[in-house]
Write a structure and sequence with these properties.
The complex is a heterodimer of chains A (125) and B (367).
Chain A: E1 8-9, E2 14-19, E3 22-27, H1 29-35, E4 38-42, E5 49-50, E6 55-61, E7 65-69, E8 74-79, H2 82-85, H3 89-92, E9 101-105, H4 117-123
Antiparallel strand pairs in A: 1-2, 2-3, 3-9, 4-6, 5-8, 6-7, 8-9
Chain B: H1 7-12, E1 16-20, E2 23-28, H2 32-41, E3 44-47, E4 52-57, H3 61-68, E5 81-87, E6 93-103, E7 106-111, H4 116-129, E8 138-140, E9 145-151, H5 155-159, E10 175-180, E11 183-189, E12 198-204, H6 208-220, E13 225-226, H7 229-239, H8 274-283, E14 287-294, E15 305-307, E16 313-322, E17 329-336, E18 345-350, E19 353-360
The chains are: A alpha+beta (125), B alpha+beta (367).
């Protein structure tokens, strides 16, 4: 199971990668593996300001649907359009091409509440 | 948690194993879509050893099975299999099952894994009432029986390599006791739960390892794949086959579930709940199990509400998925009869949205 060191992780199995006050959010390798084949991602919160822990969308896999929760507060700037035609990118490359949304952070200090790679690795044991 | 005799192979193949009906069962190996397509296009092998097997034997065996099941056992001949169900005495279903007729006095009943204990208690109580010796004239062979389903358009062709008996032209829903894969005797039946054709093979646990290896070897040239319970569900759903616990249960009748075709009111077939079901059939049930295809993006899931155009709730989804072949959301559920006509438009409540769907006849996918 891949858990890159340069990312932060939430207990809901989302990862976040920050560049200044902009961040990319996706689901972890562990999460995509548990979901199995992903059929589509539904994000209808672009342009909205959400709180930490708010649902920003859903991921529909063949066997189940899961809600997606924002790990930190922010404004949803963009949904990864490539996923419209290729939702399987989330299965194949969860930390790269399978990113879900781009967010403008409201309170970057919240990042400190998230887990590092080691803590997340222990969390999913 | 119990293992099947094939668990060791699933582990080696890197399957995701999860608890199902008290067994550690493979859910998927390489992915549901991939496995699903393998069965539709070529062939796949399923470990279904968790299924239960009961034997009814002796002079009262026929009467017992006739009493317990809705289908007409008198219509069954040696070497044929019948799909049927156990009514529960209150107009519901204890389980759905297959009945194999070995001879006039010997029947094999194959029941769902999750219901083995419930079914056994139910059948044993009826057997006792009818004067059969439980443990002898009715006995539970579930623990000692291994089973593989080999399904797909190339399944019989590949399996033919493992026996001298001609199996490729065997009629659908028939069986034979044959030497197979070097095993002296297996029960080989042209049954399955995928709509893709193929067979199911029963053997003793002791022969399971030999069977698995032989099946995989014989299938290799056709790219056989092991298939998990995940794809087993999408395959049966694409055909509109009921899953006990989802689409039928102790509170649904075979009449409303569209299982009228296995509920035979022939003379002499005095099964439990016959009068009740007959009345229901005459008066038309108030709800019906129907299949529907989503007309916009969305996947129906168990317990989602079904509404009419006005937004009134008219039913509930019992099973649903994204059809890997159609690439559309498909589902089934009970719908008030007045809104359940084929071609009718209904609305599936997917979270905060109301997504239109059309009621269609089964199967969703035609091979």
């Amino acid at each position: 199971m891949s858990i890159p060191e340069n990312l932060k992780y939430s207990q809901d199995h989302e990862w976040i990668r920050t560049e200044e006050d902009i961040a990319y959010v996706g689901i972890t390798d562990h999460a995509q593996s548990n979901l199995g084949d992903i059929v589509f991602i539904e994000v209808e919160t672009v342009g909205e300001k959400l709180d930490k822990g708010d649902a920003f969308g859903n991921v529909e896999a063949v066997k189940a649907v899961e809600e997606l929760y924002l790990p930190v507060a922010g404004e949803v700037l963009e949904f990864n359009e490539e996923l419209e035609d290729s939702p399987d990118l989330v299965n194949k490359d969860p930390y790269g091409k399978g990113w879900l949304i781009k967010v403008k952070l409201s309170n970057p200090a919240e990042l400190d509440d998230l887990m590092g790679s080691e803590a997340y690795s222990e969390f999913i044991q | 948690m119990k293992n099947t005799p094939f668990t060791i192979f699933h582990e080696k193949l890197g399957a995701r194993l999860e608890s199902f009906a008290g067994y550690r069962m493979p859910i998927e190996y390489t992915g549901i879509n991939d496995e699903h397509r393998a069965v539709r296009e070529r062939l796949g092998v399923f470990d279904v050893s968790h299924m239960g097997e009961f034997w009814a034997k002796g002079p009262k065996a026929f009467d017992l099975v006739q009493r317990l099941t809705t289908n007409d056992v008198a219509a069954l001949v040696n070497g044929k299999v019948q799909y049927t169900c156990f009514p529960n005495g209150k107009g519901g279903i204890v389980d759905d099952l297959l009945v194999y007729r070995m001879d006039e006095e010997t029947y094999l009943l194959v029941v769902n894994a999750a219901n083995i204990e419930k079914d056994w208690n139910w059948c044993a109580a009826e057997a006792k009432k009818m004067g059969l010796e439980v443990g002898k004239e009715l006995y539970n062979a579930s623990e000692g029986t291994a089973q593989l389903a080999i399904q797909g358009p190339l399944a019989l062709k590949a399996m033919q390599k493992l026996t001298d008996v001609s199996i490729e032209n065997m009629e659908f829903y028939s069986f034979a006791k044959i030497p197979f894969a070097g095993i002296d005797e297996v029960i080989f039946s042209t049954t399955g739960y995928t709509g893709a054709g193929g067979c199911e093979v029963y053997c003793d646990n002791a022969d399971a390892e030999v069977l698995w290896k032989a099946v995989m070897d014989a299938g290799e040239e056709y790219e056989i794949k092991p298939i998990g319970l995940g794809a087993r569900d999408t395959l049966r759903l694409e055909m509109g086959y009921c899953l006990y616990g989802n689409d039928i249960n102790d509170e649904t009748s075979p009449i409303e579930a569209g299982l009228g075709w296995i509920t035979k009111f022939t003379e002499g077939n005095n099964f439990i709940d016959r009068d009740l079901f007959f009345k229901q059939k005459e008066q038309k049930p108030s709800r019906r199990l129907r299949g529907f295809i989503m007309q916009e993006r969305g996947i129906p899931r168990q317990h989602y509400e079904i509404a009419n155009e006005k937004g009134d709730v008219i039913g509930e989804v019992t099973s649903g998925t994204m059809s890997p072949m159609l690439k559309l959301g498909v589902g089934m559920g009970y719908i008030n009869s007045e809104f359940a006509g084929f071609g009718s438009k209904v609305f599936i409540q997917v979270r905060n949205k109301s997504i239109p769907a059309e009621i269609v006849r089964f199967p969703f996918y035609k091979a």
